[in-house]
Model the fold of this input.
Amino acid sequence: MRRGVLLLWAVVSLELILGAWSVERRLNSPRPPEPNLTRLDSLAAQEIAELRRTANLQSRAGWQQLAEAYLGYGFFPAAELCYQQAVRLDPQATEVRFGQAFCLERLGRLEEAIALYREIIPQAETPLAGRCWYHIGRCALRLEDLSTAESAFRAALPESTARFQLAKLLLRTDRVPEAHQIAEELGQAYGSDLRVAQLRAQIAAAQGDLRTARAHLDFAERAKQRLTLDDNHDYLEPFRNRFGLARQLREFEQKFAEGSREAAAESLRQTLETNANWANRASLLLVVAAETQVSLQRPEAAIELLEKHFERGPVTPDSLKLLGDAYRLSDRPQEAWEAWQRAAAMQPGADLYLRLADEAARREETALSMRLEGLSRLELGIDAFQSNEVLLAMQEFQRTVQLFPGLAHAWFYLGEMLRISGRPAPAREAFERCLKLNPAHGRAAAALARLDEEFPDSAPETMPRETTP
Amino acid sequence: MFGHWSRVRPSGSQSARRFRPPRSAGDTTVRSQLILLSIAAVAIPLVTWFALPLVPPLRSLPDTYTGGSAFPASPLAFEKQRVGPESKQRSWIANVQIVDFDQDGLQDVIACDARRNQVLWYRQLQGGGFEEQILGKDLVAPAHATVVDLDSDGDPDVIVSVLGNILPDDGTIGRVVWLENLGGKFQPRVLLTDVRRVADVQAADLDGDGDLDLAVAVFGYARGQILWLENLGEGRFREHELLSAPGTIHVPLADYDGDGDIDIAAIVSQDEEELWGFENLGGGKFRGRRLWFTHNYDIGSAGLVQHDLDGDGDPDLILPVGDNLEDIHTYPQPYHGCLWFENRGNWEFVPHRIAQFGGTYAAAVGDFDGDGDQDVALVSMFNDWDRPEQASIVWLENDGRQNFRTWQIDNAPTHLATVAAGDLDGDGRDDIVAGGLHLTGPFDRLGRITAWFSRGDASR
Done:
């Protein structure tokens, strides 16, 4: 027993020494910066404050976690100080140093950022090294240091965004042939990208080839944006999503996607209660919550949420459309009609016109219903055109002019579809129909002039009648 | 301490089994010690583990960096006054202008409220104060209102640039809406639709036929345009494209080349950051030329104001730079501030930096100190707002030779997106009106529409 007591004394003494040492180390640790968290949603603020309180300030991981939390919410000065500490504890951790360089870049301390990115490169794996070069190039552009920018983008190759930046830089420094070569290579890989189409148009214009430039700009109207030149969002979003409202919203989306709509609605209700007064997001959350209630066939709950939204947020076409849906579900057709009409007057949309057309049909107002369906088809066609679904767009515009032959704008879009499809003669006729209905239609007049220039042989008399729209 | 126990304890394991020492007070003490030490051995690490985070670290890190801007207090006194009602919501004022809308000799304020989706007239009352009147409603995120007698019937109409969404959006959701003045009632008429977000419309006779045409900045987002709309009469306009490029903010009109007709200037942002001039060749023809550009894609062009800043008889251009709105989190940058493009004639515009000011979002020109030269007011949307001392509104004092000194007027409200200058109180010195666009935090210094009246030398 005595030996046991002796042993325990030894253990306790050791523990006390270790404890005292830990307390001493903690007392002598740098105090983490304390940014103004009140601008965050209350839950995120609480969680980040707790992280700050409990962070292991003797470890790189502790400082890194804190740095990432601050970075995710845009507290760049505080994040940079935390990264400094993490780097001090583990100078070899390249991802930590990248975080610090990123903070410096966002703070506008561009020379320091470039120097740090350069230090990381020899120790980094290829993808991170390429990313560092790309960031050096972007920083150098902000400093208007063109030679550094160019060499950095060349070092970041074959990264497609770096190739894009390099081509743009070459174009802007009057080295058009090399820019053209790179842009064409990019066109092979990213032919459907909006930015690539715009760049190719600029290069063609610089070469004096206006017809090609116009063709690329034509395509740009229907292209999607695929190249992401700025990785800020992709880098910061995961940090942000660890906390508060952002995390809860992701959980809500996940539950909703998994089909647990009741559970999703409940979690959103709780989120709204916790964050009722938070920023501008609260009114948007109310709309999301109302949408969920409509999907659960609970119109009265949706109406209540939307009324709260209108008290604090803007009356938008989307929220009015939702209000109309809720009214319709609760069998208040006149109020639904008024809400949809107001929304359509603010901002037309295919689904709004379709709702109005259905309602008009229910009221047996056939002519009005057809007109509204025509407008809906026109909007659907425009959406399809902008998504580069040319065939679908053509069908919608053809149906629109059948339903509503007096709609000049539908004739214009039909003409555009025909022109894009390489059918200049019927395109010409469609443009002419448009101009007959609306002589002030500038785009149709311009398109007709362009047809004259590009397809001088497509005069109306040579047009086969069967292709007439 | 352990003497008693050592004395009574026999040696050998068998005797130990047979002999049980009587329980004395000493035994109890040892047993108690054993229990206490066992508890301590468990408790100390646990307490250390849980309590350690409560121990405050005492060593200070260096002060956090700030890239924002603060300036010496203005030697010119400004008296602050709210215009219109206090907002219950976080206001999104996209544009303010000072204009005598009812032509009663008192300057009024016209504002675009993107949260209420309204264009508002704040009519100045005799003896001070402002009365609110709605000119247009259900205009989704109005960005700019241009007061002009579009139909030449003798009363002022309003042309509204409708974004369709205050936040980045590449959809064809923009509009140009004419609020036609029908004896004091304003009838909305859509002049242009199926375009991306419209940020600005300006009116002038661009084709020399005697009526007012329009220049339109279709900001869009990833795609956009600069258009001019030819007035065909009876409220009909035909659109013509001048440039296809995203991010055009403003299209100020003036006779930039001094040839007697009205030309168009435009600032294009969104990655390209270019200043354009469209020379009016007559008959509705224009020659576009890029007047300036920067490789700094992040400079954040935020607007364009035409004014003869140096008083040499030709219109110059003033460019506030500091828009960060496309960033997930904004932060003031060292290149934010204001550039003056001096018109040297023959479409040569020479840039001069006249201010460094984090997050600058708008500029207005006026003679605030009444010394006869033109000063500049700047507002910031994205200064480092976590630092309460940093400026939200400044004025640049012109020494008469276009050397400017920056003076801080105020640090609240924050997030000012629009500014206008004009003599609101008729005292001969220009005053300032600005609007708050509180999209991002912090939300501790809110304001909707605020006026700063110039009151002369602060030392007096």
In short: The first strand of chain B starts at residue 76 and ends at 82. Helices of chain B lie at 3-8, 13-18, 25-51. Chain B has a mean pLDDT of 92.
